[in-house]
Amino acid sequence: MGVSSHVKIIVYFVLFSVLVSKGSSLLGFPTTVHIRNDIEGYSVYLNYHCQSGDDDLGQRGLNFGEEWHWKFHVNLGSTYVWCDYRWYDNWNYRWYEGSHEVYDAKVDTALTPHFFNLCHTDCVWSARRDGMYLLRHPEGTWEKRYSWPA
């Protein structure tokens, strides 16, 4: 009886280790991050640069109403993606810029990535005049997550 319980514990430990090391990519769930330029104004152009510890997605830009997205596989506890933004306010004649995380796989509860609780495997970010908004699932509502520094 004691040997079988030890074997079960070892098997559970090995399975847990594999799941944590491979993250959700083991399960085959790609995550998509979308960046949208919803900044109203006179042809506001959003410059941005997104990167993770492993990948630099390069400097890019979006005109008002445009969107760009990319897909990746998550490694629990280690996938962290952030973007730097810069845009010129044609109404108030000043520059705005900021930086924030767009995906963080730190583990919250029940071994799910932090952002999985916010946007599951489809994170949609909207740049607006007052800050960055994240589309919450399954509610379908926009939540302001970051403000542009004053």
List keywords for this structure.
150 residues, alpha+beta, five-stranded mixed beta sheet, four-stranded antiparallel beta sheet, 2 helices, 9 strands, 47% strand, elongated
Description:
This protein has helices at residues 2-22, 114-119; strands spanning 30-37, 46-52, 56-62, 67-73, 80-89, 94-104, 122-128, 131-136, 141-147. The protein is of the alpha+beta class. The protein has a five-stranded mixed beta sheet. A four-stranded antiparallel beta sheet has the order 3-2-5-6, with no helix packed on it. The chain starts with a helix and ends with a strand.
Structural class estimated from helices and strands: alpha+beta
The percent range for strand residues is: over 45%
How many DSSP H or I helices? 2
Global morphology: elongated
Please state the CA-atom Rg, rounded to the nearest Å: 19 Å
What distance lies between the first and last C-alpha atoms, to the nearest angstrom? Answer: 66 Å
Write the layout of secondary structure elements.
Blueprint: H1 2-22, E1 30-37, E2 46-52, E3 56-62, E4 67-73, E5 80-89, E6 94-104, H2 114-119, E7 122-128, E8 131-136, E9 141-147
Short description:
The protein is of the alpha+beta class and about 150 residues long.
